[in-house]
Specification:
Elements lengths: L1 E9 L7 E10 L5 E5 L6 H8 L7 E10 L2 E4 L15 E4 L13 H12 L5 H14 L16 H12 L6 E5 L7 H16 L5 E6 L2 H7 L2 E6 L2 E7 H6 L4 H8 L50 E4 L2 E4 L1 H16 L1
Parallel strand pairs: 3-8, 3-9, 6-7, 7-8
Antiparallel strand pairs: 1-2, 1-4, 4-5, 9-10, 10-12, 11-12
The site of iron/sulfur cluster has 13 residues, from helix 9.
């Protein structure tokens, strides 16, 4: 899946629009878990809404295109998305998904509603049989079909919603903070389920959105770091975690707690300040008011993209470091 140049903003009354996603492109290969990480309010869920073709009324997608296999789709006309895309090519597991079940309906009735809204010719009995088979294949108890949501634990509800959102075998599952409200063992069960969905080919790509960098480092193949509506760094998980090039990624890693006893002496540094109000994004580099490497030009000029599409950091300081290394190498 390739997503090109997504720009999306919320209208906010008479004030300026909230520029929640600004020129974001990304590429997710088959079999890959692609992680998106960043602080609260940096545009992750907005990007998820655009990519899953579920942008609401007050979110305008000013530009963007998606390519999936041989299909290409403009992302700008979200209400006119052709049938066969939403839930079938791309499915969303929204933030707080476990609360999206209908509290007054048994899981089986909810499944019938959801599946038949995509395929009205499917008989309720067949929709249930399909769900039953899927639960068995994933080693989940079939009895959940007869339960109401309040009869299930939070972890089970989250897994059930993941099963429902992938029943139609979407090519891409976009999971928005799927484990942030779960305890550690439910988190693990959820991750195992996700891996099983991929291995069995029920889905072929996952976009995994989270604040949790340590969790992402365990499950993602590639990571994009978002700040104030933009991707500021991307690369393979080991590149981003082991040799972060952008000051924001470095600050995120430095502010992560580590339970490893060998690292307990490491000083945990918070990131000063807070992400900006996206109605008034800072000029130049949006991270400049918080960056410890800030230079004069950072507040004036947008930072350069240092690297290529698959591995880059958008930063003046990164460019300087690269140039210094190149000079040293030629002097040697
Ligand atoms: N419906 C909305 N109307 C207006 N502004 C919104 C709306 N939803 C989100 N925003 C704003 O858009 C920006 C991006 O929000 P978004 O929810 O995409 O961030 P996020 O990275 O998912 O945050 P979190 O980690 O807290 O879920 C924020 O400034 C937020 O206040
Ligand atoms: S461009 Fe400048 S302000 Fe932005 S992250 Fe790089 S050094 Fe910091
Ligand atoms: Mg969010």
């Amino acid at each position: 899946m390739d997503v090109y140049n997504v720009r999306a903003h919320y209208s906010a009354g008479s004030g300026p629009p909230v520029k929640a996603v600004d020129d974001v492109s990304l590429s997710v290969s088959e079999g890959e878990v692609f992680g998106i990480v960043g602080e609260s309010g940096c545009g992750k869920s907005t990007l998820a809404a655009v990519m899953s073709l579920t942008a609401g009324r007050n979110l305008t997608v000013a530009s963007g295109e998606m390519a999936l296999g041989d299909h290409r789709l403009p992302l700008t006309e979200q209400i006119r998305i052709p049938k066969g895309w939403r839930g079938i090519q791309v499915a969303l597991l929204p933030q707080r998904a476990m609360n999206s079940l209908n509290p007054t309906a048994r899981i089986r009735d909810f499944i019938v509603d959801v599946v038949r809204s995509h395929n009205p010719s499917l008989r309720p009995h067949d929709a249930i049989r399909q769900a039953q088979e899927r639960l068995e294949q994933l080693s989940l108890p079939v009895r959940v079909l007869d339960s109401y949501p309040h009869q299930l634990s939070g972890g089970m509800r989250q897994r059930v919603v993941a099963v429902i959102s992938t029943l139609l075998n979407p090519k891409v599952l976009i999971a928005d903070e799927p484990t942030s409200a779960l305890d550690v063992s439910s988190q693990k069960q959820f991750i195992v389920l996700l891996q099983e969905l991929l291995q069995r080919g029920f889905i072929t790509r996952v976009v995994y959105i989270t604040h949790d960098l340590p969790m992402l480092s365990n499950i993602a193949d590639r990571i994009a770091v978002m700040y104030a509506g933009k991707i500021v760094e991307t690369g393979t998980t080991s590149q981003v975690i082991e040799s972060p090039q952008h000051p924001y990624t470095q600050a995120l890693i430095a502010s992560t707690l580590d339970i490893d006893p060998q690292l307990r002496g490491r000083q945990i540094k918070g990131i000063p300040g807070a992400p900006p109000d996206l109605r008034y994004p800072p000029s130049g580099c949006r991270f400049h008011p918080r960056c410890s490497y800030v230079m004069d030009k950072c507040s004036r000029e947008a930072p350069p993209i240092v690297g290529d599409d698959s591995r880059f950091a958008a930063c003046w300081w990164t460019l300087e470091q690269l140039e210094k290394t190149a000079v040293k190498e030629t002097e040697r």
